[in-house]
Write a structure and sequence with these properties.
Blueprint lengths: L1 E4 L4 E3 L2 E2 L6 E9 L7 H4 E7 L4 E4 L7 E7 L1 E11 L11 E7 L20 E2 L9 H6 L4 E6 L6 H12 L12 E8 L11 H7 L4 E4 L5 H7 L4 H11 L8 H14 L4 E6 L4 H13 L4 E6 L17 E4 L2 H9 L6 E3 L18 E7 L8 H14 L6 E7 L5 H10 L3 E3 L13 E6 L3 H11 L2 E4 L9 H8 L3 E4 L17 E2 L5 H13 L1 H14 L11 H16 L5 H9 L5 H6 L2 H6 L3 H11 L6 H14 L2 H4 L8 H16 L7 H17 L1
Parallel strand pairs: 2-9, 10-17, 11-12, 11-14, 12-13, 14-15, 15-16, 16-17, 18-19, 18-22, 19-21, 20-21, 22-23, 23-24
Antiparallel strand pairs: 1-4, 3-4, 4-7, 5-6, 5-8, 8-9
Helix pairs in contact: 6-8, 7-8, 10-14, 17-20, 17-23, 20-21, 21-23, 21-24
């Protein structure tokens, strides 16, 4: 068998299937030759796409012209002929083709076209300071959060690690820990087994790692039907109101997990499309265990189904970008989406020297179909050919690994690039533009490699993207980023921005043109990087994308779920009455408290009076007392973030504005009004 279409190394458009899911029908033409007489009736076609799933057609052999449905991206197709009774085996003798499936000219891709507009049900917790500090101080114990995920070092698990590093450091006003974190992981019963590099890192931070194992008894497997056990189990759990409603054998399945999450305030899990049914079981088990708040963090964007808990079962979907929140809400999610962008280790901004005689371009990410790494290879070949006989030294590198590494190495070789670091293509010497394959790197090493080895980072994804942290880390290092701006990339980079390049046309030609422009103009390249580094740190009008900001957002998300909503009067009492004797605040004249410099107690007394004696003068007095309690007028120091004094000033400003907007606070008049209130109270 041979593959006649698509041609080897082709770029194809395909036929849009009209679903809006970026799926295209690709014309596949096969040639059969030297078949035995009964070949059509006895043989079958076995295909493997992107080194992943396989599919069998026949016997009899299918028509030689077929349609292959694929999503946009870089694809590697393998096809073999097998006898009816022959095992599938490997694909060492397969006919193969590598091709890139891209949008046709004029096709729209999923990216924000203009200013981000608020969408109902999409919230963004604040990331500059705590929103519920008073509530955290009133609680008798920290908010307990159980995170469930993988113990391998991936994107989601690294974010969990950074939460583990920062959240326990957040203190209440009284100096107690505000949060405690546990990590849960499903694993067969080998309690002493280290399941991944994340486990020792978590244990070094004193974060408990719970390994639980669930097993469905054989008699239930036979009763429910093999292959249907998870669906049946989740349905039974969903129908129960309490753990005691479950049969003993069913309860025994989930008891190890229940023991882990029981007593938690929040259970948060990473949701993968292929694990939706398993995750539904966890959600229902957590509910039955009495966990009041459940959070789902979808690992990506997908079509055809919603994340687990998006039907309103979960308290929120935690997403990395406004685009991702809007994506799920527009597709029917009933659960609110909370936007918490991932972070990076900010550190100082290092000055980048621009080498005018050399440009090093890099692709950073997993070598998977949805990342379209083939577009980077093709643009590299075109740019390399343009500068082959010029003084400018242009080179390219791929930082990452994945199922498409072999096809990409061979593609680079066929397109005339000089492959180095290859696993499947022998290293070449001599002329030719270098394409270096660095392979998989530790997350900490990736950023160092970007800082030390690259000048420009190329993000070639044409599919919807949740965020792309690699871009942000490159920008943080002062590197120019070239991207098609899909999906959540709009959170920090849009068309027309001066701190990066968003290619308007999602094509090899469009990407090549952008790389040629940035290679040609070293000063522009320097400015792009110089503008990018401060913006991702929240400077120059940009968004703070640091780990510290991320941790505060998670803290506010968690505390916002656990703490009830408070109106302004309640907030005033919360901040003023911390550690204050309630009887003293209620019974003693605030004037006497003021003479003894007991400003918090005086403010507490006035705050308690407000609900029954609300008038502008009383509000003015409360604002003044809160201000004086902070001692800002005597010490002339702005209170630190996340302190009682900071909250008192914020409440004071809100109280003053709600009393008599745009008026000067009159301390004498306010005290006179207070005296009248207490005289009335004494006479009554």
């Amino acid at each position: 068998i041979k593959i006649a279409e698509p041609l080897q190394d082709a770029v194809v458009y395909g036929e849009d299937d009209g679903t809006g899911q970026n799926i295209r029908g690709v014309r596949l033409v096969l040639h059969y030759y030297d078949l035995p007489d009964d070949g059509y009736d006895r043989l079958r076609v076995v295909t493997r796409v992107d080194r992943g799933y396989t599919n069998t057609l026949g016997p009899p052999l299918p028509d030689s012209t077929l349609t292959l449905s694929s999503r946009l991206g870089t694809h590697f197709l393998e096809i073999v002929l097998r006898d009816r009774d022959e095992p599938d085996g490997d694909f060492g003798d397969a006919a193969t083709v590598t091709y890139d499936l891209v949008p046709a000219p004029g096709d729209a891709i999923l990216r924000e076209a203009g200013e981000v507009k608020d969408v109902e049900g999409v919230i963004r917790p604040r990331g500059d300071e705590l929103s519920h500090a008073a509530c955290l101080d009133r609680r008798e114990r920290p908010i307990r959060v159980v995170l469930a995920g993988q113990l391998q070092l991936g994107g989601q698990s690294m974010l969990a690690l950074e939460q583990a590093r920062r959240l326990p450091l957040i203190k209440t006003w009284s100096g107690r820990r505000a949060f405690s974190l546990d990590f849960a992981f499903a694993i067969p019963p080998q309690p002493n087994r280290t399941t991944g590099p994340l486990e020792p890192l978590l244990k070094a931070l004193d974060v408990p790692v719970h390994k639980f194992y669930t097993q469905i008894p054989g008699h239930l497997v036979r009763e429910w039907g093999r292959g249907n056990t998870t669906n049946r189990l989740s349905s039974i759990l969903a129908a129960a109101r309490h753990l005691d409603d479950l049969a003993e054998d069913v309860r025994g399945i989930i008891q190890p997990f229940v023991d882990v999450v029981k007593g938690a305030d929040i259970f948060s899990f990473t949701n993968h499309e292929n694990h939706r049914h398993d995750d539904r079981t966890m959600v229902e088990a957590a509910r039955l265990a009495g966990v009041p708040h459940i959070l789902c963090e979808p690992s990506n964007l997908w079509w055809g189904s919603l994340p687990t808990g998006a039907d309103g079962t979960a308290s929120a979907l935690v997403v990395p970008s406004h685009f991702a929140g809007r994506f799920w809400r527009e597709r029917g999610a009933l659960t609110q989406a909370a936007v918490v962008p991932p972070g990076f280790e900010a550190g100082p901004i290092l000055r980048q020297e621009t080498n005018v005689s050399r440009v090093r371009f890099g692709f950073v990410g997993r070598l998977a179909p949805q990342k379209s790494p083939g577009l980077f290879i093709r643009a590299a070949a075109a740019v390399g050919a343009a500068y082959r006989h010029t003084p400018l030294d242009v080179s390219f590198a791929v930082l990452g690994d994945g199922p498409l590494r072999e096809p990409l190495e061979r593609l680079a070789h066929r397109l005339g690039l000089r492959v180095t670091g290859g696993r499947y293509v022998s290293e070449e010497r001599g002329p030719g533009t270098e394409m270096h394959f660095a392979g998989w790197l530790e997350p900490s090493d990736v950023r160092a490699a970007v800082r030390e080895s690259l000048d420009v980072v190329v993000h070639s994804n044409v599919l919807e993207e949740t965020f792309c942290m690699c871009n942000v880390e490159a920008m943080a290092e002062g590197k120019a980023v070239v991207t098609f701006g899909v999906g959540g990339v709009s959170e920090y980079l849009r068309r027309g921005d001066a701190h990066g390049i968003v290619v308007d046309t999602p094509s090899v030609a469009g990407l090549t043109e952008a790389l040629l422009r940035v290679a040609e103009d070293s000063e522009w390249r320097r400015r792009l990087g110089a503008e990018a580094a401060p913006r991702v740190r929240g400077l120059h009008g940009g968004q703070d994308l640091s780990f510290d900001r991320m941790a505060v957002q998670y803290a506010n998300l968690y505390s916002g779920l656990v703490c009830p909503a408070r109106d302004l009067n309640q907030r005033a009492q919360d901040v003023a009455c911390v550690g204050v004797d309630g009887e003293k605040a209620d019974d003693e004249n605030p004037g006497a408290l003021l003479r003894r410099d007991e400003y918090w107690a005086a403010a507490c007394g006035v705050a308690r009076l407000l609900p029954s004696n609300d008038n502008p003068q009383m509000r003015q007095l409360l604002a003044l007392l809160l201000g004086e309690a902070t001692r800002i007028d005597r010490e002339n120091v702005t209170p630190l973030l996340n302190t009682r004094e900071r909250e008192a000033l914020l409440v004071a400003a809100a109280v003053a504005e709600s009393g008599l907007p745009n008026t000067t606070l009159d301390r004498r008049g306010a005290l006179t009004a207070l005296a009248a209130q207490y005289l009335t109270k004494a006479q009554g």
